Amino acid sequence: MTARLDYFSTAPQAMEILVKQEHYFHHQFRESATMSMTIWELVKLRVSQINQCAFCIDMHSKDAIKLGEQPERLYGLNAWRDMPMYTEQERVALAFAETLTAAQPISESQYQEILNTFGEQSMVDLTLAINAMNSWNRVVKTFQPAVGSF
Question: What is the structure's pLDDT at 1?
């Protein structure tokens, strides 16, 4: 990893917190009846697009393709509201991710839509996953590892 600073070696215990979160989300979303690994990857990619995190966009595009995601859905993600190829669950998760990433309040109607779509456990997990992705984006934008180095 070529970066300004090797943040994993410099603060391994701090970085382990983010890594452990990723392991938790991987387990939760793989086992969830309402959430999926595909939705999680779309959310990670969309948050990274909003934050203009080139490293994470590259990594999560590749991860999504490995999961079987169609390239057309990745190309269209910036305009997901106008593209017919996303499910209702994906649309709810993407709207939620955009609202949280922009640090906007969650309206009561959006809250109810998220809760009704995902249920309590997945709603909490999705909230934390969106926040974790924003955190990863900020770490990467600070230390600038080379795109494609992961």
Answer: 52
